[in-house]
Amino acid sequence: MQDLKPLREAILNGDAKAAHDFVEKALAAGAEPLPLVHDAMVPAMDEVGRRFECNEYFVPELLISARAMKSALELLRPLLIARGAQPAGRVVIGTVKGDLHDIGKNLVAAMLEGGGFDVVDLGVNVSPDQFVKAVKEKGANIVAMSALLTTTMPSMKGTIEALKQAGVREQVKVLVGGAPITQKYADEIGADGYSDNAPGAVSLAKKQLAAKA
Ligand code: B12
Whole-model pTM? Predict the structure, then answer.
């Protein structure tokens, strides 16, 4: 069994090139993709999350680790799909209508991917109808919404209403976040979960799906 420590270290240090090169070489040498993900990359991102919670890592470290994870996953994704690996769940994510802030949303999307989720990123300025359409088309079981403006927060409520009207609210768990969002607001609008950070979004998504099963 190959020593996976350099891959883990590359992700922890946010070294995208080292992570990418390690995976490329490992695959060329005949390594199986799944152990690379499960035994090195996902634990490395879990550790990134832990360090973030302990204030050892901050947003810049999260961003570069997530980028390293993403660059390694790009090589692995087609192979994992070909081998029929089951994603932890399918997430439709976007920044709500009227809002163009996407740094936090991108971070959450990358961390969810790192956590084994299949992520459909709708981008920014996403209307309630676009969320509904994507849930139906992609068969998502999680909707993740981000808002950074107090003026766009109500679109989260509007999206939950639209999911209800379309008859798909029960099919999905709704997670919300972004700087102005609070647990109180999430409860008021009937969301299933809230977190103020990206690693928290991953644990939340896992917890919500486990509760649903
Ligand atoms: C960068 C930035 C911009 C950039 C955005 C670039 C981009 N591509 O995103 C630009 C310059 C374009 C911009 C524009 C504007 N901005 Co601006 N912007 C910011 C700034 C400085 C940082 C936001 C950020 O990226 N934070 C870093 C990320 C990592 O944090 P985050 O988004 O909160 O995400 C974390 C968590 O919240 C959580 N999370 C996020 N999403 C989700 C989702 C889920 C499901 C979960 C579980 C968790 C989660 O996890 C993330 C990672 O830990 C903030 C100030 C601030 N300190 O927040 C102002 C700020 C948000 N902007 C503000 C304003 C007013 C505007 C403008 C209206 C300015 C103008 N007059 O044009 C426009 C609006 C444009 C629009 N329609 O959206 C105000 C909002 C005030 C308010 N109360 O609504 C702020 C607070 C600045 C201020 N103090 O006035 N902005």
Answer: 0.86
